[in-house]
User: Fold this.
Amino acid sequence: MATPVTYYCPHCETVVELQREGYLADKSVTPFPLNGWTYVSADGDYESDDADGVRFVCGTDGSVRDPDDEGCGEPFYLSFVRSGTTDAGTAVDPTAETE
Ligand SMILES: [Zn+2]
Assistant:
């Protein structure tokens, strides 16, 4: 069963929403892609084993939760935690606790 999960844009804090299946591992949201990771667009097959994360484009890819939010148009990156990763896999979202 899909569960809606929300993330904040690291540029403008617009809330985006993604439907995720199953167990939700810790993740990081960064304004830049992690080196060597494969990102899939928010309307793509991000549940695929080939996807290491999701590339959002704030406000333009249909992922914004509130349709009245226009977003900032900047890309940002959700990285799934992968086993065997070190620094990148444990990166922490610096905006997660600003509220
Ligand atoms: Zn934004």
About this structure: The CA atoms of residues 3 and 20 lie 5 Å apart.
